[in-house]
Structure formats: C-alpha cells, structure tokens
Amino acid sequence: MTLRTTPPLPAAVPAPDGFLWGAATAGHQVEGGNTNASNWLLEHQPGTHVEEVSGDACDSYHRYPEDIRLLADAGLTAYRFSLEWARIEPARDEVSRVQLDHYRRMIDTCRDRGVEPVVTLHHFTVPAWQHHEGGWYAPDVVDRFRRYVEAAATILDDVRWVVTINEPNMMVNQADARIDTEVGVSWPGPSPHASRVIAAAHHAAVEVLRGLGHVRSGWSVANQDYQALPGAEQARDAWAYWREDFFLEQSRGDDFVGVQAYLRTIIGPDGPVEHPADAERTLIGWEYYPAALGHALRHTREVTGGVPMLVTENGIATADDARRIAYTTGALAGLAAAVEDGCDVRGYLHWSLLDNYEWGSYRPTFGLVAVDRSTFARTPKPSLAWLGSLARAGVLPEPERVPADAGAAVGGPPARR
User: Fold this and answer.
1) Which of 77, 106, 236, 315 could form a disulfide with 351 if both were Cys (CB 3.0 to 4.6 A apart)?
2) How many Å apart are CA 246 and CA 260, to the nearest integer?
3) Three-state SS string across 252-298, please?
4) Is residue 409 part of a domain?
C-alpha cells in the first residue's frame, strides 16, 4: 500500500504564462528580536493589550536559508518578505550597512534557489525614533520614508517586484481598529489625513523605484469584499471609500497592485452586520469564505481600471491543514474565474509560509510550515507540497462557474463586481 503524502490536484486549467507561485512573510512576524521597532514598544508598554509579545518570533533572521529552501524544494517560485526600516535606519539618518547586507543575502539566497524575491519595504512597523516623532503623523514622514527607500534601493539592483507599503488601509486606522468576529474588521473612524499622507509616501517611494529602471512597484491593499444588504448599496460604498477604494485609486498609475483577501464584510444601512449564524469560522473568528479572493480581484480591476494584479496575501488561520487546502482550492478557483473574465493576475503568494506572530498571538496558524515554538524546528505541512504541485504543473483549480450575481457559498448578499 502506498501512502499519499500530497493531496491530489483538483480539476485544473493552465495558469497564465509567467505566473508567480509563492508564499509570504513579514519581518516583525518571523525575524525575531526586532527590538527597535514601534510594535516592539507597543508589545512591551505597561498595560499592553497584546496577548503575547513577538520575542524571537520564528528566528527567521538567522534561519531564512532554511525557509527559502523549503519553499523552493516544494516547487514554489516566489518569496515575498519585508525589509525592516527599524533595522536599516536604527536612528535618524544612521543607515546600517550591515543590515542592508543582511537583506541583500536574503535576495541572493532566493536567486540561488531559483526563487523570485518579492520585497516589501514597509509591513506595519516603523523605527522607534519615527514612532516617537509621530509615526505617520510626523510632519516630515514622507521625506523620511523617501530617504529610507533610497537606502533600501541600493540593494535592489536585480529585484523586479517591490511592494512599497503593506495594507495602508489597515495601517492608517490601526489605532482605532477593532476585530469583531461577528462582522469582520470594523473601523469607527478612518483618517483621511493619514490616508493622504501615506499615499504621498507611497508615491514618493514609487518615484525612487522607477529611477532604478527595472523595478515593478506598487502597494498592497486589504480588500474586505464589502457586500451590501438589499437597499444598502450607498451605505456600503460610503463605508468602503476611506477603508479601501481610496487606496485602490492611488494604484492607478502603478506597475501593479497587491491584492490581499481573506474574508467578506456585509454592510447594512448602519454599517457592518453579523455573518450568517451557521458560517464556519477560522481560528481568528473570521468567516470561512474563499470566494473573497475572486470578488477582490474583480473589484480591484474595476476601481484601478485594469492595473495588473499580484495576489500578495491569501490564506486561512486553521489547525486543520485539510481545511487550508480546501480554502485555498476555492480561492484559487475564484482567481481562475477572474482570469477567465479578463483580470490580469500575475501571481499568487500564500499567507503565510510559516506559522508566525499574528500581531499579538501565535495561536492563529496561517502557515504552510509549522514552527516549533521551543526549538524553531520547521515541519512542512501537506498544504506546502500541494501548493507546490500546482506550481510545478502550472495549473489553477478549474474556475467555479457561477452566476455573476451569486451570493456567498454560505448564503448572503452578492459581492461588488
């Protein structure tokens, strides 16, 4: 009897030519010891709300060669990781050559393994000194970010994909955001001022990167797949503008836009409403809703006017790897349907490569690879080999052929298209 170690491939269709298959991480969530970052300060402040501190994280600062090897050996072709501004510029106007060299070695390791590096310049954290000066509310923050990007650009001579800022629509509301497991992500009052400032920082970064001549640059936006109850379409659009669509509009002149989708948010006349009572929930409490990715791709195309898209994050927090494979199959089937409908999608980067620090807790496990919290030993899950087998075959799950106005798999209103 032969034991099956990799789940079988679903019915499939060819992926687009040159499609990137990979996984993603973020510095603060996997590196460990990021003591000079704003989030480290917040984790350790008296009365902190976080459940546990990041600490050593996954020790990927030292173990990144193993992480990249696991990804490459599985058959994946791209690795999205972030640089830490707090390491590269530990104090105002002090650039660390040692840290730049460290990240350059990560790029070289990707190249040696035949993996395309997708570099993120900012993934939620700022240096402690920038935090003390006001973070994104500091009067000179756009200039400070430009200078950081100029320093980072010195190691990007062969990097083709750069994400300037991760999920700005989440970040500028971070202080006010609350995670409500009944409705998804809810922000009581997004800041147009902070949104415009971070957009200016993004555009400044794009200007620097375009000066290199070879970089595709863009930022990634968290798409919440806002869906309106009947009669609440205007309320949905008003709710969504400063939480999502403003940031998609800023991508219209970029080389690509990163699409990040996990869940949907249903909007009634007064804002978000509860998910269906019988909905399956993830470890974070979010609704199990793989259709969000296909909806997000279509909506992003509609708002940006057709800017090429790269799925920079998509995944599920679960302890059941079979459900991870099922969720990802559904998400990729939605992606395939979006491609069939004319969406220009250049790749899919799963969140996350590793079970990592999820901004307050290690309990939500998103990873294709398990990490022992005591020894840091890596154990690939079946989902890693499964995703790698899709990459090796160059195929996507067969598109789900559903009516254009169909609702959720578990019931509910239709998504925006």
Assistant:
1) 315
2) 15
3) CCCCCEEEEECCCEEEECCEECCCCCCCCECCCCCECCCCHHHHHHH
4) no
What lies within 8 Å, CB to CB, of 140 at 6+ separation is none
Q: Is residue 6 part of a domain?
A: no
Backbone angles phi and psi of 12, in degrees to 5:
-135, 165
Distance CA 411, CA 288 (A): 12
Instruction: Return the SS3 of 79.
Output: strand
Rounded Cα–Cα distance for residues 241 and 247 (Å): 8
- Give SS3 for 168: helix
Tell me whether residue 408 is in a domain: no
Q: Give residue 242's domain range.
A: 12-392
Q: What angle (nearest 5°) sits at the alpha carbon of residue 219, between those of residues 350 and 162?
A: 75
Task: Give the CA count within 13 Å in the CB-facing half-sphere of 178.
Answer: 7
**Per-residue pLDDT averaged across 352-364, rounded?**
98
Position 1 scores a pLDDT of 37
- Quick: pLDDT tens for 17-44: 999 999 999 999 999 999 999 999 999 9
Q: How many structural domains comprise the chain?
A: 1
Give the pLDDT of residue 328. 98
Length of the chain: 417
Contact 119, 159 (CB under 8 A): yes
CATH number at residue 257: 3.20.20.80
pTM of the predicted structure, to 2 decimals: 0.93
Helices (H), 154-263: 168-171, 192-210, 233-240, 246-249
Residues 293 and 314 sit within 8 Å (Cβ to Cβ):
yes
Q: Is residue 209 part of a domain?
A: yes
Nearby residues of 398 by Cβ (< 8 Å), 6 or more positions away: 10, 11, 12, 13, 333, 336
